[in-house]
Amino acid sequence: MAAASGSVRLQRCMVSPAGRHSASLIFLHGSGDSGQGLRTWIEQVLNQDFTFQHVKVIYPTAPPRPYTPLKGGFSNVWFDRFQISNDCPEHLESIDVMCQVLTDLIDGEVRSGIKKNRILVGGFSMGGCMAMHLAYRNHQDVAGVFALSSFLNKTSAVYQALQKSDGVLPELFQCHGTADELVLHSWGEETNSVLKSLGVRTKFHSFPGVYHELSKAELEKLKSWILTKLPD
């Protein structure tokens, strides 16, 4: 199904909390993956599911759409890119459509009784970029944002939105492998320093020798950070 409007309901897989549900985490996959694929990958890296006593983990799947870097081939991507580079315009039309679709997901959690400041959004690669657009342009009242192996374009609409913002911004947890050849470590570093200059509280964690992938040390550090932002 092409993402044409906010009426799209995303497929998703979920990991329920072991105890009483009092917070939610939305974890967005990278390009060409799926929610189930990301959950399985994390399980393989950690040798166990990414679970919490009180936090529900939601892994939505991006609807298939034509993707320019694949010469227009269909792929499960959150938005289109003109190219995989930090020095080109963003495909804002597709980003904005998906911000609306993901807003419906956040609103569903709020309707089920979870406060907005008890919801975290983040993702891997393209998923982390999508989460930054979602939170910093549309939902500055979420508990926090995380971006793993992700970047924003040099003229990102996220930067433009933050230049006009004067409220308290959600904290950003950002990680990047130094050996990443697809999304360069320097792109992630630059994204982090620009966001910091615009008032985002953030720390950039570098992982030596890690490629465009998830690592056990990174996921363990992420889990600790999640528990500081969403205490039981």
UniProtKB/TrEMBL annotation:
<dbReference type="InterPro" id="IPR003140">
    <property type="entry name" value="PLipase/COase/thioEstase"/>
</dbReference>
<dbReference type="Pfam" id="PF02230">
    <property type="entry name" value="Abhydrolase_2"/>
</dbReference>
<comment type="similarity">
    <text>Belongs to the AB hydrolase superfamily. AB hydrolase 2 family.</text>
</comment>
<dbReference type="InterPro" id="IPR050565">
    <property type="entry name" value="LYPA1-2/EST-like"/>
</dbReference>
<feature type="domain" description="Phospholipase/carboxylesterase/thioesterase">
    <location>
        <begin position="14"/>
        <end position="227"/>
    </location>
</feature>
<dbReference type="GO" id="GO:0005829">
    <property type="term" value="C:cytosol"/>
</dbReference>
<protein>
    <recommendedName>
        <fullName>Lysophospholipase-like protein 1</fullName>
        <ecNumber>3.1.2.22</ecNumber>
    </recommendedName>
</protein>
<dbReference type="GO" id="GO:0008474">
    <property type="term" value="F:palmitoyl-(protein) hydrolase activity"/>
</dbReference>
<dbReference type="GO" id="GO:0140896">
    <property type="term" value="P:cGAS/STING signaling pathway"/>
</dbReference>
<dbReference type="GO" id="GO:0160049">
    <property type="term" value="P:negative regulation of cGAS/STING signaling pathway"/>
</dbReference>
<dbReference type="GO" id="GO:0052689">
    <property type="term" value="F:carboxylic ester hydrolase activity"/>
</dbReference>
<keyword id="KW-0963">Cytoplasm</keyword>
<comment type="function">
    <text>Palmitoyl thioesterase that catalyzes depalmitoylation of CGAS and KCNMA1. Acts as a regulator of innate immunity by mediating depalmitoylation of CGAS, thereby preventing CGAS homodimerization and cyclic GMP-AMP synthase activity. Does not exhibit phospholipase nor triacylglycerol lipase activity, able to hydrolyze only short chain substrates due to its shallow active site.</text>
</comment>
<keyword id="KW-0007">Acetylation</keyword>
<keyword id="KW-0378">Hydrolase</keyword>
<dbReference type="InterPro" id="IPR029058">
    <property type="entry name" value="AB_hydrolase_fold"/>
</dbReference>
